[in-house]
Amino acid sequence: MLVERNGCRVEVITADITTLTLDAIVNAANESLLGGGGVDGAIHRKAGPELLDECRSIGGCPTGEARITFGYKLPARRVIHTVGPVWRGGQRGEDEALASAYRASFALARQNGVSSLAFPAISTGVYGFPKERAARIAVSQAFAAADEGDFSLILLCCFSREDALLYAQALEGR
Ligand code: AR6
């Protein structure tokens, strides 16, 4: 499923994000930036120990913000580490914190000349954010970034076909 906005392709794919050759991939990290499970673990494993060294030197990242590193052994040149919210029922600013994680990632991408990038389904794994709700937020932030300009390709990279279907439905506006 793909949509063209302002010269930018916004697309939902099913893939292991660590295999993608793009200007940057986004990591769904935690506030320590010192690695973890899920997509974070996969990114650190593939990038190698130099990524952890660089992350250590950054000293963490609050929820809703983002930090950028090199990609080391990953095919992607850079990694944008962002911290999505832990789902606590929906009344604790989770929607805004998730939107902010996407916005901060796009802002950092723009500042660093990143024109093609991929996002995992931030917060929808261990952090428990409801997937359809997360998909709507991801799509609206991707469209806003495309409309503002500077991007050629924004991939919403799901790990399963089931998740990709939900993100594709959000992309179609359903
Ligand atoms: N490529 C693409 N997507 C993936 C991959 C992969 N290789 N591996 C997992 N996913 P999660 P969160 C999907 O739990 O909910 C970590 O321990 C996965 O199926 O990785 O933001 C961090 O250190 C799901 O759809 O991230 C934090 O402590 C999505 O990535 C915490 O988990 C996000 O799931 C962050 O939790």
TrEMBL record:
Keywords in alphabetical order, please.
Hydrolase
Single Gene Ontology MF annotation: O-acetyl-ADP-ribose deacetylase activity
The yes or no answer to whether the keyword Hydrolase is present is: yes
Q: Which CDD domains does this entry report, sorted A to Z?
A: Macro_OAADPr_deacetylase (cd02908)
* Domain called Macro: residue spans: 1-174
Q: Which InterPro entries match?
A: Macro_dom (IPR002589), Macro_dom-like (IPR043472)
- Under Enzyme Commission nomenclature, its number is 3.1.1.106
What Gene3D superfamilies does the record point to? Leucine Aminopeptidase, subunit E, domain 1
Q: What is this protein called?
A: O-acetyl-ADP-ribose deacetylase
